[in-house]
Design brief:
single chain; alpha/beta; dynein light intermediate chain binding; dynein intermediate chain binding; Cyclin A, domain 1; Rossmann fold
Length: 636
Amino acid sequence: MVIIEDVENEEAWENSNPKNRRDDRQRPEDQVLMRALRDFNIPKIVTDDVPVFMGLIGDLFPALDVPRKRNPEFEAVIKRSALDLKLQPEDGFILKIVQLEELFAVRHSVFIIGFAGTGKSEVWKTLNKTYQNQKRKPHYNDLNPKAVTNDELFGIVNPSTREWKDGLFSILMRDQANLGGTGPKWIVLDGDIDPMWIESLNTVMDDNKVLTLASNERIALTKEMRLLFEIASLRTATPATVSRAGILYINPQDLGWTPFIQSWLGTRTNSSEVSMLNVLFDKYVPPLLDIFRTRLRSITPISDIARLQMTCYLLDSMLTPQNVPNDCPKDWYEIYFVFCIVWGFGSSLFQDQIIDWRNEFSKWFLNEYKAVKFPVSGTIFSFYIDHETKKFFPWTNLVPQFELDMDLPLQSNLVNTAETTRLRFFMDTLIEADHPLMLIGPSGSGKTILMNAKLSALPSDKYSVTNVPFNFYTTSEMLQRILEKPLEKKAGRNYGPIGNKRMIYFVDDMNMPEVDKYFTVQPHTLIRQFMDYHHWYDRQKMTLRDIHKCNIVACMNPSAGSFTIDPRLQRHFCSFAVNLEYKVLLYNTVLKTIWTYGCELWGNASKTNIEIIQRAQSTILRTITGAPWYPTDCAI
């Protein structure tokens, strides 16, 4: 059955282009069969299984090697399109785009599958740009099918009035079917596969190519239209669904991390700086990726691309003309680079009940790399860079003196430590650059207090802040109402915060909403749609709303709710673990202030009273140190 299907695919692909038929008219049948089996199965096979599959092909067709059919003119346009999008036209990337084009030639439904950050979106966006450069006038509409309900997706008949209300997918499909021209038209469904909605597309995905609605309307898929599904896995898809579509699997090794770094380096204007950074990335990144995959543990799963992305964000903020002038020594670059990559990779490391993973990483790093010298005391996370001297100094130097304000409630007093000071530094840096940020830590670690302290300190003439508290019952519709409330309509379909301000949404308890039986958290799909495409759909009119000048920061407890969130959403955030290692220092600071204040009130307190107070303080500290959790930390 598979062989018959592959031969049919090969036939269809050759028939789609007269030149293909002319070139292959004299080719022996065994070569046609061998190429069909190879070229239409390789795109959906994981890297580790490719040698096994090629061995099987070799057994079936011994001593036979047929080259791939290539179109140099088309590949040249792909390269130009990739450069237009500031991407790297590497051979592996071009191959994936060609494979997607070949699948579109024989299938009207295609799955692009891969882990977060493997380049799925860039593949189809580059193919779309290629069509533009070929003057084929392509058109696509994207939506996340899990960000809306099934009724909002396909439409519903009101049981009382028998009035029909159109759904988002049916509107998009009808509009594309009625759209003139012969250019490619795609509906991009970027979201988790769910039998509850994808089974409604069975007649669209099979040879019928027709969507039948509850209103009895039938919308036919035209020959230019395609369904493109961008997903992380097929774990909830049925065999019937999988058999109806072509599959393009993008392995993490297919593109790797190098293209991302090269694209970022393309944004730097100093050529000598680019060459130095290139050497530093090659020196530090491969060993770091290896140890984080094999030996270290983060507070929540973080993808390789997310770590590199955060490193580049920090480098953008550090490598300024003031910090690294054109005539500066080369070792200055390595000092800043080491600081940024340590935090870009190590910010999510935490201390569990057995191992302090930050300390483990610090010992490995100091043993592995000797070029940049850290002070002897402390770990590599204990120091910041002084911009004047280019030397490392402890974060404790920047900790302000704690003063207890007796006029405020106890929980409103923020106790600063080295931990809170360095977190505040990175929060200032990333929020100012408009990058998403997430604090992750157990209950009582002070995540919310730290975030609120930062957001309340933002200038009110430049920023607006909207709190978005999540709970188990939060839905995407409830979330969208909260997100839209502080926005105003600009020109056309554009929306943004009032005036010329920037909006920051603070999502607390990110992982608290319900996980459905198909492993999807509905509010997260809406957030990811915004972070990927910067728009969502009006739930009444089903029209697109482009959202501008908005950013999202969040807090999450990894030991509650769903524990983790979708890796495709997590990768957008710069994630920081908030550790509990300073709780004794926090309590000691507060208690010392309280005792001192009490003694001042008593004036002539006897030595006996002071000894009693000291014993009470010691007892309280021992109690809290041994407790598994406590109600507040930074917020006492």
